[in-house]
Automatic annotation (TrEMBL), chain B:
Heterotrimer of A, B and C subunits. Allows the formation of correctly charged Asn-tRNA(Asn) or Gln-tRNA(Gln) through the transamidation of misacylated Asp-tRNA(Asn) or Glu-tRNA(Gln) in organisms which lack either or both of asparaginyl-tRNA or glutaminyl-tRNA synthetases. The reaction takes place in the presence of glutamine and ATP through an activated phospho-Asp-tRNA(Asn) or phospho-Glu-tRNA(Gln). InterPro entries: Asp/Glu-ADT_sf_sub_c, GatC. It catalyses: L-aspartyl-tRNA(Asn) + L-glutamine + ATP + H2O = L-asparaginyl-tRNA(Asn) + L-glutamate + ADP + phosphate + 2 H(+); L-glutamyl-tRNA(Gln) + L-glutamine + ATP + H2O = L-glutaminyl-tRNA(Gln) + L-glutamate + ADP + phosphate + H(+). Belongs to the GatC family. Residues 75-98 are annotated as: Disordered. Signal peptide: none annotated. Keywords: ATP-binding, Ligase, Nucleotide-binding, Protein biosynthesis. The keyword Ribonucleoprotein does not apply. The lineage of its organism: Bacteria, Bacillati, Actinomycetota, Actinomycetes, Kitasatosporales. Its EC number is 6.3.5.-. This is Aspartyl/glutamyl-tRNA(Asn/Gln) amidotransferase subunit C. The keyword Lipoprotein does not apply. Pfam families: GatC.
Length: 497, 98
């Protein structure tokens, strides 16, 4: 049975639950001293601990615990006075130990909240817990047609990622969002990402898997309070996908329920191309992890002095900082939301620190650079241009050495590895033609080539001069100073502008 | 008495992806029962006032600084692998999951 999103919302209230995994940016793994550098050759960052070899003993990474406590504090959580790690047992080759070291009923942080904004309105998302665990290895499936498990003849494992610290942040069930559930989910993940970046504990790049989201969703008939059966959509890895996954699951659940069916509790996979989910494994089979306290790691008992010291050192929270910047920059709540979703706040601030004004910094990051990032499928911060270089481009425009069109070409040049802005200007010969002689000649040619237009201008139709300016710009390949060209045209035609 | 059943052994075997015959299920049920029974004797001496203990040492907060230490080379890491390909551990087809 097919229902629309609007139909679904008329009948049901969505209940959301979001589980976000953040890969910490520590130098070493959570339980051993192996490096965590990206891009290293397969299996070059392992040791007996993270390979699960007999007799190896894990020791916890102090910075990993510190990051967990700071994340917990920033999420307004209580910090456990004493907690243990637990073994989550499962049989799958991505963990060579046959268990993942995690936390079970004693998370390091619990009972917090994160305020997020949707269209200028604050929505409080309650946090159930934030706990410490470790990442798994990376599997490559060989022999299948699409690199997926189905049809694969065997799988290859790289354990470089196995053991990298993860913090899993779990919300309480989110109700009351109604039709805005998709936007709330997206705003929550965006806000959390900002928070993580502000804390400096991870770069939180979703496209690199440093921040991953599982979306739990169920529906209950509007006006009731008993939750329905939920589905768990795994690894939804962009902000846009979070929004689409919630929307698509609301519609799917409503279709099942309206048709008199029963929602199956299961794991689902999100597909970027269609924006829909498909069934994975059902829960009853999979979820028997036989958790028990990890005997090889002693309990973690953060002293209250340490916790308070970390609390005192927290940075300005992103939402408060954003409100401050929004006033300073003079932009609307809606525009600020777009800037946040684009991950542009940091780059804009850094560009301003490098000397650009707010308007031009915003213009380049939210315009040409956002377009390019979108095209390349990366986040703004990952583009091959520094805030200093963007500030330099803005300065060249401010000095009248570049116009916007030329500036875009300079930015393209920098992104394509042709060097710093000034080098690109030189190499591509992009500076605005200030040479009065050359400009004058181009103006004379334009007038000579368009006698009809010139006559109109002489006759007082000054707006017709635009065609002559256009001809000059074309002749100079866009490098003329358009304002000066216009002045010269008027001068030569004896018209006061 | 713990009383490990044949069904429980079958469940554990499935979780561990082990194929056991009916005969083996009975055999292991008896063995596991004996092992758990032996361990359970601890409960006989621990009175009501003794909390469940996961760690025998009164230690907390044993941590290491976030400093990289040399690990294994890929060759060393793979030296015990039954099969390898492209500097990776090669494992059989993973069935029934995605
Ligand atoms: Zn290691």
């Amino acid at each position: 049975m097919t229902v629309t999103y609007e139909d679904a919302l008329a009948t049901y209230e969505p209940v959301l639950g979001l589980e976000v995994h953040v890969e910490l940016g520590t130098a070493t793994k959570m339980f051993c001293g192996c490096a965590t550098a990206l891009g290293a050759g397969p299996n070059t960052q392992t040791c007996p601990v993270c390979l699960g070899l007999p007799g190896a003993l894990p020791v916890v990474n102090e910075t990993g615990v510190e990051s967990a406590v700071r994340i917990g504090l920033a999420l307004n959580c209580e910090i456990a006075e004493w907690c243990r790690f637990a073994r989550k047992n499962y049989f799958y080759p991505d963990m060579p130990k046959n268990f993942q070291t995690s936390q079970y009923d004693e998370p390091i942080a619990y009972d917090g909240y994160l305020d997020v904004e949707v269209d200028g309105e604050v929505f409080r998302v309650e946090i159930e817990r934030a706990h410490m665990e470790e990442d798994t290895g990376k599997s490559t499936h060989v022999g299948g047609t699409t690199g997926r498990i189905h049809g694969a003849s065997h799988s290859l494992l790289d354990y470089n990622r196995a053991g990298i610290p993860l913090i899993e942040i779990v919300t309480k069930p989110i109700t009351g969002a109604g039709a805005r559930a998709p936007e709330v989910a997206k705003a929550y993940v965006a806000e959390l990402r900002e928070l993580i970046k502000a804390l400096g504990v991870s770069e939180a790049r979703m496209e690199q898997g440093q921040l991953r989201c599982d979306v739990n969703l169920s529906l209950m008939p509007a006006g009731t309070t008993a939750f329905g059966t939920r589905s768990e959509t795994k690894n939804v890895n962009s902000l846009r996908s979070v929004e689409r996954a919630v929307r698509s699951e609301v519609v799917r659940h409503a279709g099942v329920l309206d048709g008199g069916g029963r929602v199956v509790q299961e794991t689902r996979h999100f597909h970027e191309d269609t924006g829909t989910t498909t069934s994975g494994r059902t829960k009853e089979e999979a979820e028997d992890y036989r958790y028990f306290p990890e005997p090889d790691l002693v309990p973690v008992a953060p002293s209250r002095e340490w916790v308070e010291k970390l609390r005192a050192g927290l940075p300005e929270l992103p939402r408060l900082r954003r409100n401050r910047l929004r006033e300073e920059w003079g932009v609307s709540a809606h525009d600020m939301q777009s800037i946040l979703n684009a991950g542009a706040i940091g780059p804009i601030v850094a560009t301003m620190d490098a000397g650009a004004d707010a308007a031009s910094a915003r213009k380049w990051w939210m315009g040409e650079l956002a377009r390019r990032a979108n095209e390349d499928g990366v986040e703004l911060a990952a583009l091959a241009i520094t805030p200093e270089q963007v500030a330099r481009v803005a300065a060249l425009v401010g000095e009248g050495k570049l116009n916007d069109k030329l500036a875009r070409q300079v930015i393209t040049g920098v992104l394509d590895g042709e060097g710093a802005p000034d080098e690109v200007v030189d190499k591509r010969g992009l500076a605005i033609v200030k040479d009065e002689g050359a400009l004058g000649a181009a103006v004379d040619e334009a007038i000579a080539a368009n006698p009809g237009v010139a006559e109109k201008v002489r006759g007082g139709k000054v707006q017709a001069a635009g065609a002559l300016v256009g001809a000059v710009m074309k002749a100079t390949r866009g490098q003329a100073d358009a304002a000066r060209a216009r002045e010269l045209i008027m001068e030569k035609l004896g018209v006061a502008d | 008495m713990p009383g490990i059943t044949r069904e429980e052994v079958a469940h554990l075997a499935r979780l561990a992806r082990l194929e056991l015959s009916g005969e083996e299920l009975d055999h292991f049920a008896g063995q596991l029962d004996a092992i758990i029974g032996a361990v359970a004797r601890v409960s006989d001496v621990a009175g009501e006032d003794v909390p469940p203990t996961s760690h025998p040492l009164p230690l907390t907060n044993v941590m290491r600084p976030d400093t990289v230490r040399p690990g294994l080379t890929a060759q060393q890491a793979l030296s015990g692998a039954p099969a390898q390909e492209q500097q990776r551990f090669k494992v059989p087809q993973i069935l029934g999951e995605e």
